[in-house]
Protein backbone atom coordinates (compact mmCIF):
# COMPACT_ATOMS: atom_id res chain seq x y z
CA UNK A 1 0.00 0.00 0.00
CA UNK A 2 2.92 2.36 0.67
CA UNK A 3 4.16 1.93 -2.88
CA UNK A 4 0.77 2.89 -4.26
CA UNK A 5 0.73 6.01 -2.10
CA UNK A 6 4.26 6.90 -3.22
CA UNK A 7 3.32 6.40 -6.87
CA UNK A 8 0.24 8.56 -6.48
CA UNK A 9 2.36 11.33 -4.97
CA UNK A 10 4.89 11.05 -7.78
CA UNK A 11 2.16 11.16 -10.41
CA UNK A 12 0.67 14.27 -8.81
CA UNK A 13 4.08 15.96 -8.78
CA UNK A 14 4.57 15.07 -12.46
CA UNK A 15 1.17 16.52 -13.40
CA UNK A 16 1.99 19.73 -11.52
CA UNK A 17 5.35 20.00 -13.29
CA UNK A 18 3.71 19.49 -16.71
CA UNK A 19 1.11 22.17 -15.96
CA UNK A 20 3.77 24.68 -14.90
CA UNK A 21 6.33 23.90 -17.64
CA UNK A 22 4.51 22.77 -20.80
CA UNK A 23 7.10 24.16 -23.23
CA UNK A 24 9.99 22.49 -21.43
CA UNK A 25 8.13 19.16 -21.29
CA UNK A 26 7.34 19.35 -25.02
CA UNK A 27 10.97 20.13 -25.86
CA UNK A 28 12.31 17.28 -23.76
CA UNK A 29 9.74 14.82 -25.14
CA UNK A 30 10.71 15.76 -28.70
CA UNK A 31 14.40 15.48 -27.89
CA UNK A 32 13.94 12.07 -26.25
CA UNK A 33 11.82 10.91 -29.19
CA UNK A 34 14.52 11.93 -31.66
CA UNK A 35 17.14 10.07 -29.64
CA UNK A 36 15.12 6.86 -29.36
CA UNK A 37 14.02 7.00 -33.00
CA UNK A 38 17.63 7.35 -34.10
CA UNK A 39 18.85 4.54 -31.82
CA UNK A 40 16.12 2.17 -33.03
CA UNK A 41 16.76 3.21 -36.66
CA UNK A 42 13.12 4.22 -37.12
CA UNK A 43 11.76 0.77 -36.31
CA UNK A 44 9.33 2.18 -33.73
CA UNK A 45 8.76 5.57 -35.36
CA UNK A 46 4.95 5.38 -35.27
CA UNK A 47 4.82 4.34 -31.61
CA UNK A 48 7.28 7.08 -30.65
CA UNK A 49 5.31 9.64 -32.66
CA UNK A 50 2.07 8.62 -30.92
CA UNK A 51 3.72 8.97 -27.51
CA UNK A 52 4.95 12.47 -28.37
CA UNK A 53 1.47 13.43 -29.59
CA UNK A 54 0.03 12.28 -26.26
CA UNK A 55 2.55 14.40 -24.38
CA UNK A 56 1.55 17.40 -26.49
CA UNK A 57 -2.09 16.59 -25.74
CA UNK A 58 -1.44 16.59 -21.99
CA UNK A 59 0.42 19.89 -22.12
CA UNK A 60 -2.24 21.52 -24.25
CA UNK A 61 0.41 22.82 -26.63
CA UNK A 62 0.68 21.76 -30.27
CA UNK A 63 4.06 20.47 -31.42
CA UNK A 64 6.42 23.10 -32.80
CA UNK A 65 7.51 22.95 -36.41
CA UNK A 66 10.72 20.99 -36.81
CA UNK A 67 10.12 18.78 -33.77
CA UNK A 68 9.14 15.15 -33.90
UniProtKB/TrEMBL annotation:
The ranges of region (Disordered) come to: 38-68
At the top level of its lineage, which domain of life is listed? Bacteria
UniProt name for this protein: Antitoxin protein of toxin-antitoxin system
Its taxonomic placement starts with:
Bacteria, Bacillati, Actinomycetota, Actinomycetes, Pseudonocardiales
Amino acid sequence: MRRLTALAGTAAAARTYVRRNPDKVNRMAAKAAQFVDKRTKGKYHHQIDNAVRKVHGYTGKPPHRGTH
